[in-house]
TrEMBL record:
Pfam families: DUF2252 (PF10009)
Organism: Limosilactobacillus vaginalis
UniProt cross-references to InterPro entries, sorted A to Z: DUF2252
Name this polypeptide is given: DUF2252 domain-containing protein
Length: 468
């Protein structure tokens, strides 16, 4: 089977191809003669031990958090899917691939889209998780989005016929969005964004589903304005016996670190501060760190090392920063020799920051990377105007529209890579791919169900914990 494992290494030279856009488009057509769209939609059965792969990934995580991680993953097939990106990364290498390299998200499922603040304090909607970002094949992101839509839609109780319609629309929308972005100038692509009011206006042009979605978006506008560091301080801190603000504990999820780890994190923060944008470095000169806590979030990253830093300004204001472990690519953890995986992981924070700044329309000005204790991390503001649409609360029309928006934004993100015109060339006249990827997605969703059952059974055999 075709393999492009070398694309996993985050070497930006792979997307710097000295050709015109027209030449790149022709190269994309040529790639289709080597791997057809029919092959791209052909499901190749996978043969691997899902539980063993999960166990290998979790061996790098904080062991006391694994029971809570497993509890979250057992909530549903979709939750399990979100927590096991390594399985699909591995499986995609055993499928036919386009071999057209881009900077990809690597985990573009429907819950990894959300709202975040631009530096101008506008509310932007787009991809918001880049832990698995890499140089990879465009269809890897699209297939991850498709499978997530299938699993999330099943949870919402939609019929197979309805879900097939959603999946067909996702691929069709992606193709059309690639065609649209191909017509834009480089600067139009660079400055493109999807601000919440643009989203509302787009929805208003569609009479179906406008009512529920617009109601949701207007609530998000009101709520996001209150989501900032001061709100976090009110919710997550309390005064100690000396009258100083400290994070509240909720072990094992929220737990203060010991003195040795505290000093280690301070060293990592100083490295981050000395290498972040100069204006942010100057701004941070107004703050001092007053508390640090280990605080675990999410599903897929639950169990990795994640810390919150409480910074207090010289006039009493607060800033809460998140320092989150940047794991080596999960696929690398499973297939590469240990030394190579570690080498790849040393620069994981830089990889994630680069991908986020490339794939997002506008990024957090505090975004940066650091390392300490032999591990790589990235830094960002915690929950600053961050909101999301609860996909499990959407009716069918709104869910359909939401998936369409996600697909559109995926194409926009992909077209930030210089090699993107190759995708346009590959997809020209390939309407049949829409139906083909519906079949591929449904087949892979059945594999997820098998993996989920194996995972659940393994926990029952081991009293709720996958043992080493």
């Amino acid at each position: 089977m075709l393999d492009s494992g070398k694309l996993d290494i985050f070497d930006l030279k792979k997307i710097k191809i000295n050709r015109t856009a027209k030449e790149l488009e022709e190269a994309g057509k040529e790639m289709r003669t080597k791997v057809s769209s029919e092959q791209l939609a052909e499901f190749v059965p996978v043969h691997r031990d899902a539980v063993a792969a999960i166990k290998k990934t979790e061996s790098k995580m904080i062991q006391e958090l694994l029971p809570l991680r497993h509890e979250r993953m057992l909530a549903s097939k979709f939750a399990f899917f979100r927590g096991t990106a390594e399985l699909m990364e591995q499986d995609l290498k055993d499928q036919y691939q386009s071999h057209i390299p881009l900077i990809i998200c690597g985990d573009a499922h429907v819950n990894n889209y959300g709202f975040y603040a631009s530096p101008e304090r506008q509310l932007i909607f787009g991809l918001n998780d880049f832990d698995e970002s890499r140089i990879g094949n465009w269809e890897s992101d699209l297939k991850r989005l498709l499978v997530s839509a299938r699993l999330a839609g099943e949870e919402n109780g939609f019929s197979d016929e309805q879900l097939d319609s959603v999946l067909h629309l996702i691929t069709k929308t992606y193709r059309h969005s690639i065609k649209h972005n191909d017509k834009l100038s480089l600067f139009q692509r660079l400055y493109s964004s999807y601000e919440i009011h643009d989203m509302i206006a787009a929805i208003d042009t569609l009479n179906n589903s406008a009512s529920q979605m617009n109601e949701i978006l207007n609530k998000i506008i009101k709520k996001s304005s209150r989501s900032n560091s001061e709100q976090i301080v009110k919710k997550m801190t309390k005064l100690n016996e000396n009258g100083q603000l400290r994070f509240s504990e909720n072990a094992p999820r929220a737990k203060h670190v010991n003195a040795e780890k505290y000093a280690e994190i301070l060293q990592g923060f100083n490295h981050y501060r000395n290498n972040v944008r100069q204006d942010i470095r100057i701004f941070l000169g107004n703050f001092s760190i007053t508390d640090i806590i280990r605080y675990s979030v999410g599903v897929g990253s639950f169990g990795t090392r994640c810390y919150l830093l409480l910074l207090t300004g010289n006039e009493g204001s607060h800033l809460v920063l998140q320092i989150k472990e940047a794991m080596p690519l999960r696929y690398n953890l499973l297939r590469l020799p240990t030394a190579e995986a570690i080498k790849n992981g040393v620069l994981a924070g830089r990889r994630i920051v680069t991908a986020q700044r490339t794939l997002q329309a506008s990024s957090d000005p505090f975004l940066g990377s650091t390392s300490f204790g032999g591990r790589s991390y990235y830094v960002r503001q915690f929950r600053d105007m961050k909101e999301s649409i609860k996909v499990n609360k959407l009716d069918y029309e709104s869910f359909n529209l939401y998936c369409q928006i996600c697909s559109t934004l995926l194409a926009i993100a992909h077209f930030q890579s210089p090699t993107a015109p190759m995708v346009r060339g590959y997809l020209k006249g390939q309407k049949a791919l829409d139906d083909g990827l519906v079949e591929w997605t449904n087949a892979y969703a059945k594999q997820v169900a098998i993996d989920f059952d194996d995972f659940r059974n393994s926990l029952q055999d081991n009293n709720g914990l996958i043992t080493k």
